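Researcher: Next entry in the queue.
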Amino acid sequence: MKILIVEDEIELSNSMATYLRGESYLCEIAHDHRTALDKIEVFDYDCILLDISLPDGNGLNLLRQLKANNKTDGVIIISARNSIDDKIEGLNLGADDYISKPFHLSELSARIKAVIRRRRFEGTSVLVFNELVIDIEGKSVFIDDKPVDLTRKEYDLLLYLASNKNRIISKNAIAEHLSGDEIMSYDNLDFIYSHIKNLKRKLSMAGCSDYIKSMYGMGYKFEPKS
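Model: Structure for this entry, 226 residues:
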């Protein structure tokens, strides 16, 4: 799961990123309006943590831009301005939640999970595809009730494909989801094939049906049996 932290307080943004990375999130940071705008125009995020007061602009304008671009990223507004008007405006613009500073990082993490669960998984914390079960809260996978040992990247890849079942997902989209803006420095996307191959091998060895299909020249599709 990929998070964008839009926060100009460097110490706070670093603390948030460190904590959330410990929760297995892929985190990127933008300290100003311009950097955040560049990122949201190019990349998609599972959740954006958005400070209202930025040195070069209002965070609510970023929210307006997201909606104008028909982006579906989840948004939690983070602000020291504990104003009911700010909360109402942010929620009316399409934010999913609002948390006031100071806050506990554990509470922030719980709110992120709730937003992602509502937006990506229709409120459920477990995805079931016949013999295959993905426990989103526990970040674990079971086949016929037996756990499957996956790396973090393999788990993230499986969850991403499964949450977009029956849709063709391009290699670029997969690379962006797994590596964030680091893909800008990659020479090729061969690592995607390696992750797919290893994931399919582990699932097959555990007795799982072949749900991950290669769509020649287009990408991959998770296609569960009816």
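Model: The chain has two domains: 2-121, 126-222.
Researcher: Noted, moving on.
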